[in-house]
Write a structure and sequence with these properties.
Number of domains: 1
Radius of gyration: 16 Å
Distance between the termini: 46 Å
Number of strands: 7
Structural class: alpha+beta
Helix content: 10-25%
Order of helices and strands: EEHEEEEEH
Strand content: 25-35%
CATH architecture: Roll
């Protein structure tokens, strides 16, 4: 090893404050969209693993909505910043990290499990 070289770190560095993490809720710019895709800038739940979130240029998210009532498995009730919302699991999508505008909240472990269950059912996993 060269005198001034630094060995490769044994473990990945901790994600920074702007690094999306699984279970985080971010404000995401979804436009432009086509057809029946959820439009505009809205809250979205990050569902990709933290390892992929660190390495990939895209992040997989589930959009949230405040209008409809929960109707599992497609619409799963969650809370964001103390307000009720639903995760629209059939609108899951990968977005470029440049679309993520700001982190607002993190789902509870129980709510994340409910969304995961909804995704499994919608995607037949």
């Amino acid at each position: 090893m060269k005198k001034n070289s630094v060995p490769f770190p044994a473990k990945s560095p901790s994600p920074g404050p702007d690094q999306p993490r699984r279970g985080d809720i971010w404000r995401v710019r979804l436009d432009p969209t086509l057809g029946s895709e959820i439009k505009k800038t809205r809250l979205c739940l990050v569902v990709t693993t933290d390892t992929l979130n660190r390495m990939s240029r895209t992040i997989v998210v589930v959009p949230l909505s405040t209008l409809p009532q929960a109707a599992p498995p497609v619409l799963v009730r969650v809370t964001c910043s103390g307000r009720p919302a639903v995760a629209v699991t059939d609108q899951i999508r990968a977005v470029s990290r440049e679309r993520l505008l700001e982190r607002l909240d993190t789902l509870s472990a129980a709510e994340l499990i409910e969304v995961e269950d909804g995704l499994r059912e919608v995607l037949e996993l």
